[in-house]
């Protein structure tokens, strides 16, 4: 039986545009899909006929041949694409079905552009680890860094071709970036070995970038680090990553902050903790001490009489600034009552005398040893 005209199969006028062909195919494929026409024994043949027609008319070269010669253009193997089947075999059914999937989902998945030409490749994102001091994290800073990256080649302006010429369509895959091989009923699709999936080749590569459209170079950047950052803070610089391939958009640069450990202050969120040694006499009798603050200033703190090690006192708003505004955290002074060492004979004598007079001045010791005595008594029982 003679084949029907491909335009009639899709319900189109001869010479229809590519978008009309695609739209008609989607409609027909949905209407005649065998899964939706289980009661129609002819549905599968009609569905294959629609796919065969679309396989030819969607391709500019095949469509031009068909418009001129009709079905005769594909008799005896004419019109076959590298790595694909003829215009009526099993390869065309799988190919057309794959192509409509690409048409429907290609934009979402980052696939091919209309006409089979692949999009320029976006550059890779880069990571830069930056170590700063706690003081720098408190005040914020502007810092110059050098990032090894791929930048757009200035000689070819990112095209990859000598003299800024345009790449040409890959003859192996016809610009698809992929080749298909028939294995029985199945069609296997692989990345084109000639163009490495780009869909284009450069006949006269740039002498500087060798056809890549970009070159490796250290890039100097000035980075603003806001006040209040902490270890793990990530700063994104859009478009400052690697340059894209063949004029594609650049990736992003991510700066990961690490705040170095401080000799005096320990940070927890926006609060700071400072452990301050206090003499035994000051802790017992009260007194004033001077403590540093992260902004480089000083604060006087009164030690209450009878203070013990571990006691904390708060200095409000003397901590770290909030990263996105909202004031400052607090600073906590933690006392460490210090036992004197290297005592003179006279000091030892005074301490022994003090010890003899201090039987009722150590409530914590009394409470502890009372608990110990009760424990031992219970063990004996």
TrEMBL record:
InterPro entries: DnaJ (IPR012724), DnaJ_C (IPR002939), DnaJ_domain (IPR001623), DnaJ_domain_CS (IPR018253), HSP40/DnaJ_pept-bd (IPR008971), HSP_DnaJ_Cys-rich_dom (IPR001305), HSP_DnaJ_Cys-rich_dom_sf (IPR036410), J_dom_sf (IPR036869). Zn(2+) 2 binds at residues 170, 173, 192, 195. Binds 2 Zn(2+) ions per monomer. CXXCXGXG motif repeats lie at residues 153-160, 170-177, 192-199, 206-213. The keyword Zinc-finger applies. Residues 5-70 form the J domain. Residues 140-218 form the CR-type domain. A zinc finger (CR-type) spans 140-218. Participates actively in the response to hyperosmotic and heat shock by preventing the aggregation of stress-denatured proteins and by disaggregating proteins, also in an autonomous, DnaK-independent fashion. Unfolded proteins bind initially to DnaJ; upon interaction with the DnaJ-bound protein, DnaK hydrolyzes its bound ATP, resulting in the formation of a stable complex. GrpE releases ADP from DnaK; ATP binding to DnaK triggers the release of the substrate protein, thus completing the reaction cycle. Homodimer. The J domain is necessary and sufficient to stimulate DnaK ATPase activity. Zinc center 1 plays an important role in the autonomous, DnaK-independent chaperone activity of DnaJ. Zinc center 2 is essential for interaction with DnaK and for DnaJ activity. This is Chaperone protein DnaJ. It comes from Pseudooceanicola spongiae. The lineage of its organism: Bacteria, Pseudomonadati, Pseudomonadota, Alphaproteobacteria, Rhodobacterales.
């Amino acid at each position: 039986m003679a084949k029907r005209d491909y335009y009639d199969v899709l319900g189109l006028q001869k010479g229809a545009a590519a978008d009309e062909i695609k739209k008609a195919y989607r409609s027909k494929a949905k209407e005649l899909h065998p899964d939706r026409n289980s009661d129609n024994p002819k549905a599968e043949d009609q569905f294959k006929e629609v796919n065969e027609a679309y396989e030819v008319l969607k391709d500019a070269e095949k469509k031009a041949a068909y418009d001129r010669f009709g079905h005769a253009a594909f008799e005896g193997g004419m019109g076959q694409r590298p790595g694909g089947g003829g215009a009526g075999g099993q390869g065309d059914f799988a190919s057309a079905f794959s192509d409509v999937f690409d048409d429907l989902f290609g934009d979402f998945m980052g696939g091919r552009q209309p006409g089979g030409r692949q999009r320029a490749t976006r550059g890779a994102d880069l990571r830069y680890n930056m170590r700063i001091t706690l003081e720098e994290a408190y005040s914020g800073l502007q810092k110059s860094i050098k990032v090894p990256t791929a930048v757009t080649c200035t000689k070819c302006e990112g095209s990859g071709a000598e003299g800024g010429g345009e790449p040409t369509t890959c003859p192996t895959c016809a610009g698809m970036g992929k080749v298909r091989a028939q294995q029985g009923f199945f069609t296997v699709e692989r990345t084109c070995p000639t163009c490495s999936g780009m869909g284009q080749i450069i006949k006269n590569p740039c002498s500087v970038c060798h056809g890549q459209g970009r070159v490796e170079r250290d890039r100097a950047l000035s980075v603003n680090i806001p006040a209040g950052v902490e270890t793990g803070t990530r700063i994104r610089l859009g478009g400052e990553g690697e340059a894209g391939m063949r004029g594609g958009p650049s990736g992003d640069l991510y700066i990961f902050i690490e705040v170095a450990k401080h000799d005096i202050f320990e940070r927890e969120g926006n609060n700071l903790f400072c452990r301050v040694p206090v003499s035994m006499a000051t802790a017992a009798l009260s007194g004033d001490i001077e403590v540093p603050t992260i902004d480089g200033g000083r604060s006087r703190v009164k030690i209450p009489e009878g203070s013990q090690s571990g006691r904390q006192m708060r200095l409000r708003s003397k901590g770290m600034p909030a990263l996105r505004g909202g004031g400052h955290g607090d600073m906590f002074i933690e006392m460490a009552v210090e036992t004197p060492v290297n005592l003179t004979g006279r000091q030892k004598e005074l301490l022994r005398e003090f010890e003899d007079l201090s039987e009722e001045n150590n409530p914590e010791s009394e409470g502890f040893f009372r608990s110990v005595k009760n424990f031992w008594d219970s063990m004996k029982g």
